[in-house]
Amino acid sequence: MASSFKPEQARAPPAVPLPIPPLTKFKIGICQLLVTPDKERNIAHALKAIEEAAKKGAQLVLLPEIWNSSYSNDSLPVYAEDIDAGGDASPSTVMLSEVSWRLKITIVGGSMPERYGDKLYNTCCVFGSNGKLKAKHWKIHLFDIDIPGEITFTESKTLTAGESLTIVDTDVGRIGIGICYDIQFQELAMIYAARGLFIYPLNHEMIMISTTFDILIGYRLLLHLFMNPLHYTRLMFLHLGAHLLCFPGAFNLTTGPLHWELMQRARY
């Protein structure tokens, strides 16, 4: 007997069609960088890698997580930049802005420690081909781990977790942004890929920095909203539907080889 289930009718109202990407074929440059304690050297190294990727035809270039800083709780406050202030307060983003404009490419700038008020964030900056900062993503899921005899690292000791999703329209299409450990949580990728009407709770202290969206959130986040005693002062209705998901990472050699490649395949 044929099934009476009709998946196209399972969503009401029906999903909003994903917009056609500006480009249907383009090259992506993925830069792997050896980080040193010398910040200026790290910036120069990243610049060289971006230029090499663009020279080979890349229209979208990605950097890794914490590419300009040593990755430790002691180092992050020292290397942190005031991205909003720019200029001398943020030499890393000055470089990303200049090179994206000069080479007319889109850059997903991995991540860097950002000082925002009295807090530190693990921040991914996305620059458009006009050199403008199009979006910032604050890492949502901080990496706290303790494997006796192997590795102990408590990212939350220094960093503050972000609370917002980030989808940004670029010259190569609509991109959903996560950082490293964010990839562990499938709901984030599911939300980024979703097409339909959803609700996003905004804490009164948070500012949405991303630009254009498709439509937001789903059952599990709504369940989270109603089951957790968080004090949201407003709700935001957004549009999602990403063409591409980017999760810049810097996984360690203990847990990374166990699941990093598997996680990428699962999110695909």
Automatic annotation (TrEMBL):
InterPro entries, per the entry: C-N_Hydrolase (IPR003010), C-N_Hydrolase_sf (IPR036526)
GO MF term list: omega-amidase activity
Gene Ontology CC annotations of this record: mitochondrion
Pfam family, one: CN_hydrolase
PROSITE patterns tied to this protein: CN_HYDROLASE (PS50263)
Organism name: Rubroshorea leprosula
Protein's recorded name: CN hydrolase domain-containing protein
Organismal lineage: Eukaryota, Viridiplantae, Streptophyta, Embryophyta, Tracheophyta
GO biological process, one term: oxaloacetate metabolic process
Residues covered by the CN hydrolase domain: 26-268
PANTHER family in the cross-refs: NITRILASE-RELATED, OMEGA-AMIDASE NIT2
